[in-house]
């Protein structure tokens, strides 16, 4: 076990699950309920640059163009992740939450994780959520996403994400509402958050204000901000 128990700073909760499983919803809700106590890190913020000629795993898109493989753990800058988690864990937070597709398998996270949670959601529901997000939020034609899912996304999930379910200390139902998911997770982290500020009214959290990005976790930034989370 890492975190407070091992003297390495705040404990780390790793949250994984497939695309659109609800893992970000769970992690952001925890941070929003306890804005002064929970530091939130999104692995999505730590992909190598899309056009990096050396790092990352490349694949072919359904368009035929070569692109970074966003569904492969080899496309994550693991060194930057390790630095960010260590910086947050040694700051003013009671708990650090790391969420992402590979949160239960990436050594930079698992070597530091105190608890591991997998958000389990049926594939058809995840795909429907993703397509709705493409249409309603990003205003994109979902056809390319569907083709990429059939070309490689489904296979990558089966190879790199779904097996991590067996590594979890807790499996959460991703079709439940966020209150039910939080209640389940508090069975693990509740004692750490005991004494934290009372839960805040839920609102749509902003990644820009809630998440700890690589830039926000530089030594200079941490020193100037005293690791006080925004929001």
Radius of gyration: 17 Å
| Distance between the ends | 30 Å
In this structure, how is the largest beta sheet organized? 5 strands, parallel
Helix residue percentage? 25-40%
- How many alpha or pi helices? 8
Secondary-structure element order, N to C: EHEEEHEHEHHEHHH
**How does the helix and strand content classify structurally?**
alpha/beta
Q: Per the principal axes of the C-alpha atoms, what is the gross shape? A: globular
Which percent range describes the beta-strand content? 5-15%
Strand order of the largest sheet: 2-5-1-6-7
Would you identify the regions where 5 or more consecutive residues have pLDDT less than 50? 1-7, 197-210, 218-231
Mean pLDDT comes to 85
Number of strands: 7
């Amino acid at each position: 076990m890492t975190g407070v128990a091992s003297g390495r700073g705040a404990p780390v909760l790793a949250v994984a699950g497939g695309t659109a499983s609800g893992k970000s919803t769970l992690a952001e809700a925890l941070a929003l309920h306890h804005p002064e106590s929970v530091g939130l890190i999104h692995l999505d913020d730590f992909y190598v640059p899309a056009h990096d000629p050396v790092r990352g795993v490349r694949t072919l898109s359904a368009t035929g163009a070569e692109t970074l493989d966003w569904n492969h753990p080899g496309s994550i800058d693991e060194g930057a992740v390790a630095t960010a988690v260590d910086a947050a864990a040694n700051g003013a937070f009671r708990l650090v939450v790391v969420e992402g597709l590979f949160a239960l398998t990436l050594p930079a996270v698992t070597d530091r994780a105190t608890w591991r949670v997998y958000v389990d959601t049926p594939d058809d529901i995840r795909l429907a959520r993703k397509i709705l997000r493409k249409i309603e939020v990003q205003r994109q034609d979902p056809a390319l996403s569907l083709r990429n899912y059939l070309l490689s996304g489904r296979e990558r999930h089966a190879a790199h994400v779904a097996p991590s379910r067996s590594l979890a200390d807790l499996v959460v139902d991703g079709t439940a509402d966020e209150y039910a998911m939080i209640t389940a997770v508090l069975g693990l982290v509740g004692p750490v958050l005991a004494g934290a500020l009372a839960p805040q009214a839920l609102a749509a959290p902003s990644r820009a204000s809630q998440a700890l990005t690589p830039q926000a976790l530089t030594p200079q930034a941490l020193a100037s901000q005293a690791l006080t989370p925004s929001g």
